[in-house]
Design brief:
Elements lengths: L1 H28 L5 H21 L10 H25 L4 H9 L1 H11 L7 H20 L5 H23 L7 H19 L5 H4 L9 H27 L2 H22 L6 H26 L7 H15 L17
Protein name: Transmembrane protein 241
InterPro entries: TPT_transporter
Subcellular location: Membrane
Length: about 325
């Protein structure tokens, strides 16, 4: 079981690393900066692969009601904003800078939980969110490769990611699973970006793309679509199988490795101030690991799958008996 979880974590890290570096290569090295076409292609590949996986029985997609689909429509609009603005920002910003600004969306969700939902928020979480916000605000002033357009699109990406997370959490519980939601996102994004490619001019400007007939371009685009699909699938599996603390640890590891290797593959001018604010942004993720570490150590809170299945069978058998049993005798576990 531990080997399976480790394999899942390494698969997620590999997909995360390969997906971001491939996207950066297409956007910054080949300079294919036509997001309606590039992201439309990625969502087309992702949608087709997910549909094929459903037909082959590898994943389960529920036939949702029209009301459920319409309810999820605002989230799909935000998803289009995430991938479109993210593509524009990543084409102009270094990968570590982009990841810090992407992580800053946690500030929106933390503030919404504290101020709107009135949830109890630990002081350490608030402090880490403030550190992350300070890093995201101060980083542009210390960036020797400052690009105003890149930071503009990163700001839009920041608000779309934060709003998407808030909207997802506010819709819980929902009849739509994570796979259902992503399937709808793929379909809506593919249709909307296809229609938007003409008004934005991307369709005609792509005709003059210098690498249009190069195998490296087509290979990179195909790889980006396939890797994006496997990244989505591994992320869903990671969140469904692993505990929150373990999931946070793998995400932290994937982002650190991706940011580090990107410095070796792509040009980025580092100053002491830039390194300092990048480190402050990473401290936010590290704080989440420190907070979750006691939960990871306390194995008594969890049970194995066999124990859980046995507990479930016992509970179902009790329901078939007269209701004079002692409820305190029911086995109680928390599934890892």
């Amino acid at each position: 079981m531990n080997l399976r979880r480790s394999l899942l974590g390494f698969t997620f890290c590999t997909c995360y690393l390969a997906s971001h570096l491939t996207n950066k290569y297409v956007l910054s090295v080949l300079k294919f900066t036509y997001p309606t076409l590039f992201q439309g292609w990625q969502t087309l590949i992702g949608g087709l692969l997910l549909h094929m996986s459903w037909k082959l029985g590898w994943v389960e997609i529920n036939s949702s009601l029209r009301s459920d689909v319409l309810t999820w429509l605002p989230a799909s609009v935000l998803f289009v904003g995430i991938i479109y603005a993210g593509s524009k920002a990543l084409s102009r910003l270094a990968v570590p800078v982009f990841l810090i600004l992407h992580n800053a969306a946690e500030v929106l969700t933390c503030g919404f939980q504290k101020c709107v939902w009135k949830e109890k928020t630990s002081l350490s979480k608030i402090c880490s969110a403030l550190f992350l916000l300070a890093a995201a605000v101060c980083l542009p002033f210390q960036d020797s490769q400052f690009d105003p357009d890149g930071y503009f699109w990163a700001l839009i990406h920041f608000f779309c990611v934060g709003s998407y997370k808030i909207l997802r959490r506010s819709r819980k519980p929902t009849v739509l699973s994570d796979i259902d939601q992503q399937y709808l996102n793929y379909i809506f994004s593919m249709v909307l970006l296809a229609f938007a490619s003409h008004p934005t001019g991307d369709l005609f400007r792509a005709m003059d793309f210098p690498f249009l007939y190069f195998y490296s371009f087509y290979g990179s685009c195909c790889a980006s679509g396939v890797l994006g699909f496997f990244l989505m699938l591994s992320t869903v599996k990671l969140r469904n199988i692993l505990a929150p603390g373990q999931c946070a640890a793998w995400i932290f590891f994937a982002k650190v490795v991706t940011a580090g290797l990107s410095l070796l593959l792509f040009d980025m001018t580092l100053t002491r101030a830039t390194v300092g604010w990048l480190s402050s942004g990473r401290a936010h993720l590290n704080d989440r690991l420190v907070t979750a570490w006691p939960m990871l150590q306390d194995k008594s809170q969890f049970c194995t799958n066999d124990q859980f299945n046995h507990s479930l069978k016992c509970s179902l058998s009790q329901l078939q008996k007269p209701q004079d049993t002692d409820h305190a005798s029911y086995p109680q576990y928390r599934l890892l």
